[in-house]
Amino acid sequence: MDTVTAIDLRRLLAADDTDACLVLAEGRTQVATGADVPGLRLIDRSQVLARLGSDPEEYALIEYAALLESEIRLQGG
Q: Cα(40)–Cα(76) distance, rounded to whole angstroms?
């Protein structure tokens, strides 16, 4: 089972807070805000916007989620 999915990235882009980020906590991803986020910070909303734009195609979200998933596995997560 993948940790990061296209749905996660879509939820991050839809977040109202511009400082939102995707975090990994207890084996699950969640969108969090603020300086003291629970878990491991995976990516910020601004990073996804810079790479994919505000309304990316589904295939772009899937590819980027796979890249993030690969990075997590390389780090032993």
A: 12
Which amino acid is it at 48? V
Ramachandran angles phi, psi of 44, nearest 5°: -90, 155
CB distance 18 to 73 below 8 Å: no
Q: Give, in degrees to the nearest 5, the angle at Cα 33 between 32 and 39.
A: 45
Radius of gyration (C-alpha) of the chain in whole angstroms: 12
Question: At 2, is the pLDDT very low, low, confident or very high (cuts 50, 70, 90)?
Answer: low
- Look at strands 28-32 and 40-44 and give their pairing: unpaired
pLDDT tens sequence across 25-66: 888 899 998 777 788 889 999 999 999 999 999 999 999 999
